Amino acid sequence: MSPRRELALALSAALILAIGMGFGRFAFTGLYPLMVGEGVLSVNGGSLAASANYAGYLLGALALARSPERLAPLLCRVALLGTLLGLAAMAVPAPAWFAIAVRLLAGVLSAVALVGASVWLLHVMQQHRGAPLMFSGVGVGILISAELIAGGHGAGLGSPAIWLLLAGAGAVLALLAWPALGRPAAAGTVHAPAPAPAFAPMPAASLLLIYGLAGFGYIITATYLPLLMRGGALSPLQAWAVFGLAAAPSCFFWHWLHLRLGTRRALAANLLAQALGVILPVLQHSAPAYLASALLVGGTFMGTPTIALPAARLAAAKVRFNMLAAMTAVYGVGQIVGPLASSALYQLGGSFGPALLAAGAALLLGAACTWQPARAAASCPR
Description:
Blueprint: H1 3-23, H2 27-37, H3 43-63, H4 72-89, H5 96-124, H6 131-154, H7 159-177, H8 204-228, H9 236-261, H10 263-283, H11 287-298, H12 303-315, H13 323-349, H14 353-368, H15 374-378
Helix pairs in contact: 1-4, 1-5, 1-6, 1-7, 2-8, 3-5, 3-13, 4-5, 4-7, 6-7, 6-9, 8-9, 8-10, 8-11, 8-12, 8-13, 8-14, 9-10, 9-11, 9-12, 10-11, 10-12, 10-14, 13-14
């Protein structure tokens, strides 16, 4: 296959994730403060909508854990069309329960997009080298949607009109991705998988604990960052755009660092940097602190699965359950608990500070769990 076609396939997969994840899953973060300001949602209603979205993602990922590869193009089409309809549905004037239901469905569709695009590119089309570019689509989608939200808000549009704007822009991106899904599968020749990294696998229990803590740790910032910044000198939407801008290339960096340092050290570095980004807004309420938080958390949250999921594949040989499904489950549980805990702590004290500190502590605990006793470290590679 020519390099140009390989690039086209990876870009199509990236666009699917940009729509299904960047738009369908994370555009709500940028619009959340505007919807609260308009009285469309309360802080508590928004937290329930966020948790419903993450619950939908968990349900969708588990339901598709054993879906056949031949259905991957269909899954991608369903995710694209369903996400566009979900974006448009958020413009409908309705009670909070409607928004919560739509966000639940959007979560399911984001999982369909992730599973469908990954299986289509990596297994059906056998383009393993395109994985970092594909996952960068999440950050690109966050960046584009944030700029559209900022532009719409600056033009005086309300949240319903901005949801429709996002649906229209998503439709344009979907048209660019759609043709590649009709291409025939790669020839029957099975390409050899990439050589396994030269480091010992981590225990499955450690990976599951760390990944669940990471899901809880990042999601509070990824849900509430623009809301935290209301009334400050820095535009919350531009800070959210920085979050996406940092996420887009981060997969390449963390993949490289994983190969250089091994799972334990790369994961520890990732979680420590992420913890610093999460707690910065608590330590200092200033535009530079919020901007640094967006850069650090945006530049690390996609790096966590980039490191942890390949490590989980190595650990899977030593367990009797589906390790990747279990990883998806614990990460999803962490993402569901995060907004619920944040909402409860906010109602008690009227501040997101305690929730951010709890999230930072979870990430620090995850980093500590990567530690390996000196005797064991001396007897095995990285």
